[in-house]
Specification:
- The chain is an alpha+beta fold.
- Helix content is about 30%, strand content about 25%.
- The protein has twelve helices and 15 strands.
- The strands form three sheets. Strands 12-11-10-9-8-15-13-14 form an eight-stranded antiparallel beta sheet. A five-stranded mixed beta sheet has the order 3-2-7-5-6. The protein has a two-stranded parallel sheet with strand order 1-4.
- A hairpin with a 1-residue loop joins strand 10 (about 265-270) and strand 11 (about 275-280).
- The radius of gyration is 19 Å and the shape is globular.
- The chain starts with 7 loop residues before the first helix and ends with a helix.
Length: about 375
Amino acid sequence: MATIQLDERKMEAAVLGGAVLGGGGGGWIEDGLQLGRLALAVGHPRLVTLDELADDATIVTVSLVGAPAAPDKYVKPVHYLRVLELLAERMGRAIDGIITNENGASTTINGWFQSAVTGIPVVDAPCNGRAHPTGSMGSMNLSERPDYVSVQAAAGGRSGHYLELAVSGPLDKVSSIIRTVSVSAGGMVAVARNPVPASYVSENGAPGAIQHAIQVGEVLLAHEGEKAIDAVASMLGGSVIAAGEVTGFQLETTGGFDVGRVIVGGCELTFWNEYMTAEIDGKRLATFPDLIMTFDAKSGRPLVSAAVATGQNVAVLVVPKENLRLGATMRNKRLIQPIEGIIGKPVLPYVFGDKGNEEATGDVSETNADGLRNA
């Protein structure tokens, strides 16, 4: 396939569609639009498909790590470029392609600014086709490879609190260090991480998920109000399970995450950055990685979890996970399990059922094992 031409309309669609697929997380819509416009103003970001790269091309993931609601967060475009420099220096080789960690309002266009400035293409193969809370969930099951050495770079924070670093080691430990740095930098940092060959991304990522977000966004842009919500539900094969006034909202920013609960129209939602569960009268209707998303009921505009407030009129959309483009980590029981301790509700039985033991280590590809040892 040819390079996908990006313009203002596609950028706006990517941000709005990404907001829907973010499932409550994935950054703020206005941040995504601002960065997208900047990318288009400074150059020509390139979005390519995996088949345009050699199997051994080096691809790295770019992301934001932290809590969207953190009041002191400070990440600027220069930080996105700095982390690529730090990572390339640490790796000792060039970067051939950039992928985003997930779909979200701002995360869907992760890498567009860097591509516009550096010429490195963005590859339409995110680690995951929806947003997720932890770095390991956006690492394509590299956490299951004991021989893999994770290399990550982070930068962010205001003057006096600015932090940057490049670090390597076991993925879980390095991801924990980056999360701690995000807290110390004010709540969020730009990150570049985890070099892998393109063939590994093909097996463990979510090819086509950026174009999927653009398609969702185009549906939103073509409709208004309730019709927009209904059109998105129809496209994704989901349903609106509740609508009405938000009568309860709790949010706590802790450990670099937004954690809380929303009550709307008799429906209880829990979130850990992203919405994790949806229940009515104690009956579970959706569980992460199913998509659960809130919309402003009047405008039809997506509302991330941190933007919800008591008294708003919202609609709640749920989409079965089978209708999403998900990376390999969404089948990994070990990575899903921590959700239960955060939200205080059972998750694994609803996600894995009787297959829980079979899915304990996820779907780990053996492709290019040698290429990963020294990545």
